[in-house]
Amino acid sequence: LESSGINAEYGQHYYITNNLRRAMEEGSPLKSPSPEKLKRDISTPYLLRKLKQTKYAHTMPLQQFDSDESESSDESSSGDSSGSESSDGELSVGQRRRVGQLDNPEADKENIESYFHSRRSTKTSNKTLHDLELDEMDHGKITKLLGKRKTGFEREQAALFAEHVQLFTQWHVYLSQGYNLVCYGVGSKRKLLIHFSKKMLKHDYHMVVNGYFPDLTVRDILNNITNNMLGSSATFRSPHDQLSYIRNSKYTQLYLLINNIDGANLRNEKSQMLLAELAAIDHVHVIATIDHINAPLLWDADKSKLFNWLWFDCTTFEGYTDETSIETSLMVKQTGAIALSSMTHVLRSLTPNARGIFKLLATFQQDSGPEFQGITFQDFYMKCREKFLVNSDATLRTQLTEFKDHMLIKTRNVDGSEALYIPVEPKILQQFLESEF
User: Fold this and answer.
1) What is the pLDDT averaged over residues 183-194?
2) N or C: which end of the chain has fewer CB within 10 A?
3) pTM
């Protein structure tokens, strides 16, 4: 008993605990422990008592405790006063069995080591990828290298692609009957949608939308439909006005191919509801792809009714090269091409006044040179008033908020006040001004 590290008072504690458990199950009265036993129980440290309880409390069944109890009572009736507890505090043989002492010292040692192992402190390295001093590659080079990557299953992938192509005629029939299609499965389905548009929609108005683009919004999709596909120059107050215009348009068939309708910027409730209302228009037909495992949870009963989906398994096992090309990486040198593409994409969907406000800020930043730290809101407001771009500071604040949401502009603290600036390199900003204005 001493070699196992268990004191006699711990044995008394678990003896009382198991008797209490048996009394509660049998409904028999429980004898009150002696004051000496209570004193020993209270003096036991809680953490060690908890540890011992985990290791020893339930190692023997209840029937075994009952048999040990009867055996110990026989021993005590023989006149041996040391049967219950010896003078030096050691447990008797029957009490040792009541405690359920393990006979395997190796298992006991393993439990103790695992206890302290789970509470050890963890150290992490402070090394980063920059410490390797690797040569960064530009976006074009890394895309070219990924394009040369071979999977070893090109034949199987081509066979899968050919099977999906055979369904194109069936897809077109479903679309003409008022259904919309959603494609799911492992692998990128962008090439499949582009191939469908080239083969089946050559003589129809159609638009391919990359839903994985980080700055894409539903308003951008509606602006492209009304301005580019329908040729409207009207100003709409809300997306619902644009939906009404599309619903009343003279064009008979409009096809919308959305790659990743479950993209990060399209997952919110408002965006999915607007897309559902757009898909419910009679002459608008939607083919969408999903890649997130929880994408079906985006649509409740109302949205599913508006979308009127037909589901197709379009597993391709193709790599997500295009979908992940916009992600930033420490291994890729940031050339500014992504920032330029983002600004161009967003700016083309804005109103003329908004474009003028952004052009004014970009021109002022470019003319100020590399020491430009930003322009305060009040100074920028006065410049916009001089160009008749805004008529109140509230209008300007609303427009700046939209720019911030698209991450076109940022603010920094300069001399205790917030200053506005465009977070791109001067060379990229100059290229943007030359291409757009």
Assistant:
1) 92
2) C
3) 0.50
Is the CB of residue 68 less than 8 Å from the CB of residue 98?
yes
Put the strands of the sheet holding 417-421 in their side by side order.
375-376, 417-421, 410-414
- For residue 251, pLDDT over 90 is answered with no
d(CA 265, CA 267): 6
Q: How far apart are CA 341 and CA 25, in angstroms?
A: 74
C-alpha 125/C-alpha 136 separation (Å) is 23
- Taking the C-alpha atoms of residue 196 and residue 143, their distance in angstroms, rounded to an integer, is 24
**pLDDT at residue 143 tops 60:** yes
Cβ pair 374, 421 in contact under 8 A: yes
- Strand 375-376 with 417-421, pairing: antiparallel
Sign of CA dihedral 388, 392, 398, 400: positive
Cα-to-chain-centroid distance, residue 114: 33
Between residues 90 and 315, which one has the greater pLDDT?
Answer: 315
Contact of 193 with 208, CB cutoff 8 Å: yes
Question: Across residues 379-395, what is the average pLDDT?
Answer: 88
25 DSSP 8-state letter: H
408 exposure class (CB count in 10 Å sphere: 0-12, 13-18, 19+): buried
pLDDT of residue 64: 45
Of 235-244, 375-384, 402-411, which gets the smallest average pLDDT?
402-411
Using CA atoms, how far apart are residues 288 and 259, in angstroms rounded to an integer? 6
Tokens of 267: 């997952």
- 413, 374 contact by CB (below 8 A): no
Give backbone dihedrals phi and psi of 19, rounded to 5 degrees, phi first.
Answer: -65, -40
Q: Enter the tokens of residue 141.
A: 């080079």
CA distance 390 to 128: 47
What are the structure tokens assigned to 299, written together?
């649509």
Tallying the residues shown for the chain, one arrives at 437
Contact 140, 341 (CB under 8 A): no
The SS3 call for residue 357 is helix
Q: How far apart are CA 95 and CA 68, in angstroms?
A: 8
Position 139 confidence tier, pLDDT thresholds 50, 70, 90: low
The rounded Cα 248 to chain-centroid distance in angstroms is 39
DSSP secondary structure, 187-240, as one string: S--HHHHHHHHHHH-TTSEEEEEETT-TT--HHHHHHIIIIIIS------SSHH
d(CA 140, CA 57): 66
What element of type H or E holds 183?
A: strand 180-184
CA gap 31, 85 in Å, rounded: 17
